TrEMBL record:
<feature type="binding site">
    <location>
        <position position="232"/>
    </location>
    <ligand>
        <name>NADP(+)</name>
    </ligand>
</feature>
<dbReference type="GO" id="GO:0000105">
    <property type="term" value="P:L-histidine biosynthetic process"/>
</dbReference>
<feature type="domain" description="Tetrahydrofolate dehydrogenase/cyclohydrolase NAD(P)-binding">
    <location>
        <begin position="140"/>
        <end position="284"/>
    </location>
</feature>
<protein>
    <recommendedName>
        <fullName>Bifunctional protein FolD</fullName>
        <ecNumber>1.5.1.5</ecNumber>
        <ecNumber>3.5.4.9</ecNumber>
    </recommendedName>
</protein>
<feature type="binding site">
    <location>
        <begin position="166"/>
        <end position="168"/>
    </location>
    <ligand>
        <name>NADP(+)</name>
    </ligand>
</feature>
<comment type="function">
    <text>Catalyzes the oxidation of 5,10-methylenetetrahydrofolate to 5,10-methenyltetrahydrofolate and then the hydrolysis of 5,10-methenyltetrahydrofolate to 10-formyltetrahydrofolate.</text>
</comment>
<comment type="similarity">
    <text>Belongs to the tetrahydrofolate dehydrogenase/cyclohydrolase family.</text>
</comment>
<dbReference type="GO" id="GO:0009086">
    <property type="term" value="P:methionine biosynthetic process"/>
</dbReference>
<comment type="subunit">
    <text>Homodimer.</text>
</comment>
<comment type="pathway">
    <text>One-carbon metabolism; tetrahydrofolate interconversion.</text>
</comment>
<dbReference type="GO" id="GO:0006164">
    <property type="term" value="P:purine nucleotide biosynthetic process"/>
</dbReference>
<keyword id="KW-0486">Methionine biosynthesis</keyword>
<keyword id="KW-0521">NADP</keyword>
<dbReference type="GO" id="GO:0005829">
    <property type="term" value="C:cytosol"/>
</dbReference>
<keyword id="KW-0658">Purine biosynthesis</keyword>
<dbReference type="GO" id="GO:0035999">
    <property type="term" value="P:tetrahydrofolate interconversion"/>
</dbReference>
<keyword id="KW-0028">Amino-acid biosynthesis</keyword>
Length: 296
């Protein structure tokens, strides 16, 4: 068996195109332009790349893109004052504070200072609680992207056995909640799960988000299963730096029915879903129907 490759890059391009169409319609029919503000504190190289890409794609979708770049020694009061300013700005519908923050800043305090309706990362404790109780919320971007690809590939997920490998607040836990919401039978596994390979072999759907390069090998996967690899790990191989996932693609692709590659799988969906969340937040703020197919 050779797995079907789930092309996240192409899927993300389609999501961005749909977002742009909705944005154009909002502007034409309601005079509204969704606005996304990104706050970057410090000079983390990876964060700078992410912020640059987010700004570029936000503008390409027709949205308002605002960036606030703060010095690494910015104090908490200054950052919280900026968040409050953005909370009260009617032109801004989505606020994203780029993580990680410098060590002297309390990430939880800052994230929970964001208006939950503008929390397009879905990290605010109110959104976590709403998602966990099956209510309307802002959904974290990476799990939302995974769910979109799974729905596209399978149609209905009802009754499927899903295993989420990883228990982070950013991916693992919200991914499990989303799969429960689509009527899957969900198991959360992690590095300390007993008989981990056997647990994974029961999965019709496997979402790997454990942060360990190529941990999941083909022998751990049920033949025909759908594998969503969230991991992005940099390793040295043959004298070169290479990006790999949490799944050993070479062996897994010989067993799985469908699989996302790394790179080019889940990664591009994260920013696409950030744009979708900003569009959704704008629609909710103005009492307009939410765009179909771009929410959980």
């Amino acid at each position: 068996m050779t797995a079907k490759i789930i092309d996240g890059k192409a899927f993300a391009a389609d999501v961005r195109a749909r977002v742009a169409t909705h944005v154009s319609r909002l502007q034409a029919e309601h005079g509204l332009t969704p606005g996304l503000a990104v706050v970057l504190v410090g000079e983390d190289p990876a964060s700078q790349v992410y912020v640059r890409n987010k700004g570029k794609q936000t503008k390409e979708s027709g949205m308002l893109s605002v960036e606030h770049r703060l010095d690494p020694d910015t104090d908490e009061a200054t950052l919280l004052a900026l968040v409050e300013q953005l909370n009260n700005d009617p032109t801004i519908h989505g606020i994203l504070v780029q993580l990680p923050l410098p060590d002297h800043l309390d990430s939880d305090l800052v994230i929970n200072a964001i208006d939950p309706a503008k929390d397009v990362d879905g990290f605010h404790i109110s959104n976590v609680g709403l998602l966990g109780t099956g209510q309307k919320s802002m959904v974290p971007c990476t799990p939302l992207g995974c769910l979109m690809m799974l729905r596209d590939h399978h149609g209905s997920l009802s009754g499927m056995n899903a295993v989420v490998l990883g228990r982070s607040n950013i991916v693992g836990k919200p991914m499990a909640q989303l799969l429960l919401g689509d009527s899957c039978t969900v198991t959360i596994a992690h590095s300390r799960t007993k008989d981990l390979p056997e647990v994974l072999r029961r999965a019709d759907i496997l979402v790997a988000a454990v942060g360990r390069p190529e941990m999941v090998v083909g022998d751990w996967i049920r033949p025909g299963a759908t594998v969503i690899d969230v991991g992005i790990n940099r390793i040295e191989r043959d004298g070169k730096t290479k990006l790999v996932g949490d799944v050993d693609f070479a062996s897994a692709s010989q067993v799985a029915g469908a699989i996302t590659p790394v790179p080019g799988g889940v990664g591009p969906m994260t920013i696409a879903c950030l744009l979708a969340n900003t569009l959704t937040a704008c629609c909710r703020a103005n009492g307009l129907p939410e765009p179909e197919g771009l929410t959980a």
